[in-house]
Predict the structure.
Amino acid sequence: MSSETSPGTLYLVATPIGNLDDITYRAVKVLSSVDLVAAEDTRKTKILLDHYGIVKPMVSYFNYNERQRAPQLIARLLHGESIAVVSDAGTPGISDPAFYLVREALAQSIPIIPIPGASAFISALIVSGLPTDRFVFEGFLPQKKGRKTKWESLLTESRTIVVYESPHRILKTLAEIATYFGDRRVVVARELTKKFEEIVRGPVSLVLEELSKKPTRGEYVVIIEGFQS
């Protein structure tokens, strides 16, 4: 067993959000050393592993198989294997099913080690120009049930608000921000660290107008100015 990993340990390994060079030396060492990689999408993770010449067994671990797969991973950890969990991009546990596995591992007193790195919402937040000393991360908003209630609960939130959104709903979300919050300042970031990285800043009416002019592609991070009394 390599000194980079310990038997029976779960590693939460942050991976690039776009540019494959945005990974830590430690993450590469851990991915090279573990017995198994549990990936949200094994095809995407294989591209990363191939890029760094890493050959490791992989299993899928995603939102729709977490309850079936988690007990299998826990059993392997208890048997002494070391396992790295990775998401499609960024830090596992942020708006993905890694939380469920972490909770199950803690219940079994399995050691868990975070390997920090890229995160899309942090990258967007620090270049937004909006206050970063206090913020609230809401992840993906409810698609239907509870969506109106969620917006209403954020009306008087004074901290900077951060949400994720898909290309299919980004225009709807910006329109809803204008409806509930008025013409607040927002920042919309997509394809961060990639060739077509784009960051649009301004009053939500202008940002919505700008994004309406072109096809919506990629995952979006939306930063919303907090309520000003």
